[in-house]
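User: I'm putting together notes for a lab meeting next week and I want to include a structural view of one of the chains we've been expressing. I don't have a solved structure, so I'd like a prediction I can at least talk through. The sequence is below, exactly as it appears in our construct file.
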Amino acid sequence: MDKPLIIKPLDTGYFDTVVELALENYLLERHSARGLCERANKSYFSKQLEELFSKGTGRMAFEDNTLVGFLAFGEIFTINKSGAKGAASPLWGYGIRHNERGEIIGRLFQDIAAELCENFAQGMNVSVYAHDTEVLWTYIMSAFYMEHTGVVRDVSSPIEAEMSDKYSFREVGKKELIHHKHEIVELYRGLINHLRVSPVFYHCRQFLPIENRFDDFLKNDMRVFAVFDSNRLVGMIDSEPINWGFTVDDTEALSMGDIFIEPAYRGSGIAIALLKFANDELKSNGVKRLFVMHGTINPSARGFWDKYFTNYSYTMSRLIDPDMLGTIKPV
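Assistant: Thanks for the context. Below is the predicted structure for the 331-residue chain, given as structure tokens.
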């Protein structure tokens, strides 16, 4: 950088500019992820950033007394049963108005990380816009690894799929779900076992016992779309209102859950056909955007969702060696 960069703690006197930077970041991502809502406004980012300013840890970057970037983490919290501490920076927790995006986020993170480590935060979690390449690369070079990705699609975008006459597709009501409980539980079991034997091991303990998960599909606001071979349910996908991120108040958006296909039917194209059916049905009901959050470690999920959706965010993590935590005294 040609001019020196000055790093300072968060200051409420610059709150309005910080909100503008967060909104600009979102609109910048929307150039690549067109499925994101175009009606984003300052009120959402203002509400979220108020909490970060009041309880979190953050820094601002100045060049020639002009605010050019900020980064903020929320309150330090307990991350596991052993009592280890951590802190997270949400997707709206950073903003940059400068060509040197990577260098600015690097300087901001370095300064914040020092304070977090002094307060014994071992785990650090950051969410970054998927097409913010310089920022992503800076975190990767700082030993962060990707955990999850958020993807979105505009339901008007076509999905090419052959709807075979051999199978029938329909939305399934609560009574019919109960009637097909055994098939649904077995579909869920098939997905869990598929993950557990994948090259990258998933223990999936949080999904056990599998039978207890069935009631999730009976929630009032969940919709289930299924594919049948004769009268046998062989695949399903669900959707429900979104309860995370800046899409919480988006009444024209839904979140899609896992897609379950009986093992013997995988590779036949019915997963794509089922996604197309659900997409078109939701579109006819006024839904405009569909969101999915999935693990980047799962190659099957990446291959399926990323083909029909657009990445808009990555969640990345880093664990600090406990021996490096706390104030380090000079030798």
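A couple of points you could mention at the meeting. The chain has eight helices and 14 strands. The CA atoms of residues 292 and 325 lie 35 Å apart.

User: Perfect, that's what I needed.
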